[in-house]
Amino acid sequence: MNIVTVEQAVALLADGLIVGVPTDTVYGLAVDPANRLAVERLFTLKSRSAAKPIGLLAHDVTALAGWAELPDRSKALLDAHWPGAFTVVCTAGPLVSEGLGDAERKTIGVRIPDHPVARALLERTGPLAVTSANRSGEADCHSPDAAFAVLGNGVAGYLAGGASIGLASTVVDITGEEPVVLRPGPIVL
Description:
The chain is an alpha/beta fold and about 190 residues long. It contains five helices and eleven strands; from the N terminus they run E-H-E-E-H-E-E-H-E-E-H-E-H-E-E-E. It has one domain (about 5-185): DHBP synthase. Helix 1 (about 5-15) packs across helix 4.
């Protein structure tokens, strides 16, 4: 297993490779969302259906400019739960390409994680396309060792650290007038 530093992870991501990332929810897999080949590699590695889009993690709200349109009416909700285990589905911005978000609805899931390693990486890279480190439909991994046991060298490097909570994030659709919970999780509305 190739354990990497944040600096090494930045270089691997810039080369279009997949990096394992600890988050506050579950251990994740990250790629550069602007690199279509990297996104395709991620789908292939996970055996994930193209009908199941991938969302973004970002260091802060300003980093989401161009990627996600966050309505003003949701500001209090986001301020209350970010950073944290709270994903919102919102209108996709012009930077969102194929494989990210829901092309039919023109939406994207976005989150600001509350994990020091993930945030250090995101501060250096900008938003990343991130999904759980597992084969699609299988149990989530919570550490680099668990992810390596499932995904092996299909991941170019693994950042050290484990998941803080161990549960997938709460997912809330904020495209309408009222938020709608799509997936219950650690944050209850």
